[in-house]
Amino acid sequence: MLSNEEFLLWCGRLSWSREAQAAIATIRSAGPARRVGGGRENVSGRYPSRKMGVTIQFESHRVELAFVYEMEHDPDVLEYYDQAPAIPLEYESGNGRRLAVMHTPDYFVIHRGSACWQECKHEHELDKLVQKSPNRYCREHDGRWRCPPGASYAEQFGLYYRLRSSAEIDWTLQRNLQYLEDYWRFEAAEVAPTVCERVRAEVAAAPGLLLSHLFRKTKGAASRDDVHRLIATGDVFVDLRGAGLMETDKARVFPNRETALAYGRVEEPPSRGERPRFVHFTPGASIMWDGRVSTIVNSGEKTVSVKVRSAGRRPHLDGDTSGDL
What we know:
Layout: H1 4-13, H2 18-29, E1 45-48, E2 55-58, H3 64-73, E3 77-82, E4 87-92, E5 98-103, E6 107-111, E7 115-121, H4 123-132, E8 138-139, E9 145-146, H5 148-155, E10 160-165, H6 171-185, H7 193-205, E11 209-210, H8 211-217, H9 224-233, E12 252-253, H10 257-262, E13 286-289, E14 292-299, E15 303-308, E16 316-318
């Protein structure tokens, strides 16, 4: 969790407007807006977050809890808050009636380079909601879900709104995170330095070593529990999206993430941002720039001038403006 000084430095680095900074500060200082409850098919609960130092509510153990695990262990996520203060959504109903509702998002998430409100739904629930409220929920051509009124509200601050579906959940990652949970929770039991050095030496000598081979090479010197603890602490690296830790003949071990990337052995997570795929360089049109909503001011043959909404910077995009990006 960020200190007040770290939060101000983060705001300054991203050039947030006073309005955006105030909105985020309010969310950080407010407690959950509501207490969640489960239903017939969902089990609600609280997750003891080490990152946040508090318990985080989840409404469904099948959907929200999975995303909580992901946010807890994603190094790009600096903070996340459950049941952030309600925000207004304005949209038309299916019969054309104008609606204005107050909506409490499941989470507000602060990333290193952006921030967003986040709502989590089961895929089959979204399939029903899009029929009932097509102007509140929609699916893009790439299959991702959007909430246009949520995005519209977030844009005024230069933030974004993310609608997440259960279809996004990486269950290989989830199983690995849950398996390593006890190692993260109970940090007192450390691996002896000599054992750590032996395991690291074997991995350094053969980057990408199968986990099953590492167990055999270190048998008698390091237990499987020792190796799993070193994976949990980051002393050696296994891509938790690539293979289950129980699949020892598939999971590969590297000295660190950088080495795994060099070997092309890291599964990249899906993109977070709701970035438009096509940009028409028309004055007044909106685009996403560096995770911020911007407005095109004017365009020339080689340069496009854009203004970041509610922020004081005006980046320039160089390129051919005759077509789409």
